[in-house]
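Support reply, case 0932

Customer input (verbatim):
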Amino acid sequence: MIAQQKTRFHLCCDGGNRVNAMKKYNGKSAAKKSLMPLKPTAAFNAQAFLDSAGAARQVAEFQRKEIIFSQGDEPKNVMYIQKGGVKLSVVNEVGKEAVVAILGPGEFFGEGCLSDQPLRMGTATAITPATLLVIAKKEMIRVLHEEHDLSDRFISHMLSRNLRTEQDLIDQLFNSIEKRLARTLLLLARYGKNSQPETTVPKISQETLAEMIGTTRSRVNLFMNKFKKLGFINYNKARPARPQIPPRRSPPRLIITSTRSANSSSACGTNPKPSSAYRCRSRLAAT
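Our regenerated output:
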């Protein structure tokens, strides 16, 4: 038989001012504890963190063709692209350049400093006017450890970059130049991304496209014209300005006058052969 628990209330009066109520459960006493309400803390917003400057991070702007960092520099920061486009390239000892990637808004680069990379392995150049968030190495490591929202986003970005690198390698080994160029143009237009594809890609030269797909500029020009005739793309070549040519003038006239003696003409009126006695002088008269 289950014994019912008895509850006894003890009322203690302290001068008639305070009344303390205590309960006894099975011979044990428990006092009510008053809990202070905690102040709600604002949730971390990864996008707001990446869109604004703050402690150990600053916003920097770069013009087109301006170098962000060079190959061989000491890695100190991680960059996040807010606006514009960035080209990552590598140069060998001979001076031949290879374009590794073209990055757009919402992408990170320069993350090699997080893995204790001693020197930058490539050069980053702005292909359009770009706005970047420069995050210090220690600040990036701290935020990745403390804020899971940003760490999840950064890991997703790194996995996407690795997958794209594998696809670039397969494309380089097995596909033709025409297919490689078509795929590169689609990537520049951000086709297949979650956002809406861009109808106008950043201004990029045929030399850069050739460096990206591993061919010559003449081959790129050939297939670009083919795509344009088929209606896949539309572009206008930049024509150099023609020099100002002054108005054409008529050529100068050569006037020859001669002086000879009166007896040099024949009676029949025909002109005899010129003799050494003639004195000829010429002048140029400009019209």
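We compared this against your earlier run and they match. Two observations from our side: Residues 1-35, 264-269, 275-287 have pLDDT under 50 and may be disordered. The chain has six helices and 13 strands. Please reopen the case if you see a mismatch on your end.
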